[in-house]
């Protein structure tokens, strides 16, 4: 596709369940970012991938959060034992390089609701 | 840690008037300053950016100014239109990461 694709667009889950969010970046983009955006708030950085490695995972809120990227392309963000405070929109972005000084292309996000 | 402060959090202007959003950053090593626009239900989209070797950049109705000495930069939108209604985010970046402002909700009144 032409842009960054995220799935699911909406996910409702029960507290304590695990969820997986998927991001398909723009072809050829080596850098991939995950952000979290709570209702009406700014962007909270979670993790950054350059290729398949994650040189910066400083934003992951707890060990319940993990992410991987395979083949330098698709990335999956996994949240284990979800809590109500995990409810937010999870945004993925990709860019051509990893210098943090280039345009980020965002997907439309995955809205997670934990009941 | 490093941070970016953005003001105001909400800005309401009459259609046709100008809007100005200001950001202040703390990391003197920052050398890249983008502005993103986020419409409801969408991801943010880059509208303009500026690098530290430039003081001002303009693209049609949008302009950004940078004052590295004072460590602040501003977004200017002239002749505002209804489609300018959105949330705007500033950010400051360097070699290690992009630090984001909290966002400004811009409301264009008809």
How would you summarize this macromolecular structure in one to three sentences?
The complex is a heterodimer of chains A (115) and B (110). With 115 residues, chain A is mostly beta strands. Chain A has strands spanning 5-7, 10-13, 19-24, 31-37, 44-50, 53-56, 65-69, 75-79, 88-95, 105-106, 110-114.
Number of helices of chain B: 0
Which chains share the greatest interface? A-B, 18 and 23 residues
* Poorly predicted ranges of chain B: none
Low-pLDDT ranges of chain A: none
Rough outline of chain A = globular
General shape of chain B: globular
User: Fraction of residues of chain B in helices?
Assistant: under 10%
Structural class of chain A: mainly beta
Topology as H/E string of chain B? Answer: EEEEEEEEEEE
Instruction: Kindly report the average pLDDT value of chain B.
Output: 94
Beta-sheet strand percentage of chain B? over 45%
What share of residues are in beta strands of chain A?
A: over 45%
N-to-C span of chain A? 33 Å
The total of beta strands of chain A comes to: 11
What is the gyration radius of chain B calculated from CA atoms? 13 Å
Number of DSSP strands of chain B? 11
Kindly state the percentage of residues in helix of chain A. Answer: under 10%
């Amino acid at each position: 596709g032409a842009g960054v694709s995220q799935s699911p667009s909406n996910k409702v889950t029960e507290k304590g369940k695990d969820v997986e969010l998927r991001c398909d970046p723009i072809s050829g983009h080596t850098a991939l970012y995950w952000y979290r955006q709570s209702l009406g708030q700014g962007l909270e950085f979670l993790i950054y991938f350059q290729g398949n490695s994650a040189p910066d995972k400083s934003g992951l809120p707890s060990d319940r959060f993990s992410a991987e990227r395979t083949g330098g392309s698709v990335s999956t963000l996994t949240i284990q034992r979800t809590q109500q405070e995990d409810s937010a929109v999870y945004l993925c972005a990709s860019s051509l390089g990893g210098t943090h000084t280039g345009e980020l292309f965002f997907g439309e996000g995955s809205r997670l609701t934990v009941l | 840690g490093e941070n970016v402060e953005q003001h105001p959090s909400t800005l309401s202007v009459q259609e046709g008037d100008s809007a100005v959003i200001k950001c202040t950053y703390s990391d003197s090593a920052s050398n890249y300053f983008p502005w993103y626009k986020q419409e409801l239900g969408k991801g943010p989209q880059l509208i303009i950016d500026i690098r530290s070797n430039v003081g001002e950049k303009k693209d049609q109705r949008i302009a950004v100014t940078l004052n590295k000495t004072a460590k602040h930069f501003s977004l200017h939108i002239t002749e505002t239109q209804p489609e300018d209604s959105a949330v705007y985010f500033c950010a400051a970046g360097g070699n290690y990461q992009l630090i984001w402002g909290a966002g400004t909700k811009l409301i264009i009144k008809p």
